[in-house]
């Protein structure tokens, strides 16, 4: 899969913050930290310096992410400290906290980028597609061959995606995006039962698929689609038990 990229096409993470009170993740203002583009003077004298500042901050965030991933590939996240991540990235601990409220949030970076792209692609799908089918097809369209970038994530996730805090955090920060996309397709409010339940369920299915991909390798697309297809089928009655009474495995 080629991850969603910024305007420069460089796959760098855009720093994120959790909006107060609703656990939504949004891009951080690169100069003020409030999600808004800083004003420039009419003559445009501040535009270049603001752009350079944005690039420097994006590079720093990318360094932190990559340093953390390398550390997470060698041992579980719980055994890695913020101080170690900052030292490996060549930044101060204070600088680390300018981009991430905690080390767990680093492991939401890829899911947030992917969920954002899925939500946008879901909205663009042909009108004839039903809401959940549009989301499924968006995931199918956005996932593909594993590259070096994803392999680093895969190794890091293999150590840390069994962490319940990380799984819950990923669902928390991605489900509102999917809920909004599904609500838009269905012509419903985001707090209506179907889009809210479908968004949370889809986010959970993607986390489970990603966790299985990290543990079992193979194709990310195949694991994600398997989880979504099971969800889309309403889970069914569940696997039948075998003759010994042990629940069957699908």
TrEMBL record:
Residues 81-100 bind DNA. GO terms for molecular function: DNA-binding transcription factor activity; transcription cis-regulatory region binding. Signal peptide: none annotated. InterPro entries: Homeodomain-like_sf, HTH-type_TetR-like_transc_reg, HTH_TetR. This is Transcriptional regulator, TetR family. Keywords: DNA-binding, Transcription, Transcription regulation. Gene3D superfamilies: Homeodomain-like, Tetracycline Repressor, domain 2. Residues 58-118 form the HTH tetR-type domain. Pfam families: TetR_N. The keyword Transferase does not apply. The keyword Repeat does not apply. SUPFAM superfamilies: Homeodomain-like (SSF46689).
